[in-house]
Amino acid sequence: GQNIDQPTEMTATEGAIVQINCTYQTSGFNGLFWYQQHAGEAPTFLSYNVLDGLEEKGRFSSFLSRSKGYSYLLLKELQMKDSASYLCAHMDSNYQLIWGAGTKLIIKP
Amino acid sequence: IAGITQAPTSQILAAGRRMTLRCTQDMRHNAMYWYRQDLGLGLRLIHYSNTAGTTGKGEVPDGYSVSRANTDDFPLTLASAVPSQTSVYFCASSEAGGGTYNEQFFGPGTRLTVL
Asked: What average pLDDT score do residues A94-102 get?
């Protein structure tokens, strides 16, 4: 079967660093996506990893370990506008996205 | 139009009624998708289309139907709405469907309540 897990909610302080973890189980793998979704809005693409390692994009970085079925999203220099839900999704053998329930990130001043 | 549009923005519907949610994209993307998003659950794929003229079933297709007569439009129809179909519905598109990395772009969503 296919399963994808991430924490329901996390809290962090403005200016700090936060790491959001995602674990998955799948019989076929074609990449790991992270999306950001502000309350009441549509998800927007943040990152894509298909090979092991760290991909850095400004304040956001995403890491993948295929052997461990594990990814994380690292957010640096947190800003209040980063308060949102962060959705992890892996692309299965049929090239469809399987989504986690999302991690709600609360930023406190 | 820029990107993906969905209509209506929100709708309250009596159980048993038929409803079509509209989705239009102007990016000439080949693939389009319909998801539902419910509190505490991830986005769940209802139906998809890898190219105009073809459709496929996702994880939760029962009670829904789609058509893809052209590249731009991908309507989702609820033949006879039930309260369990109360949800936020997102339409998405990507440049390619199947076989390649493809970032999905999402519409603003339709909030549907079935009473």
From this structure: 90
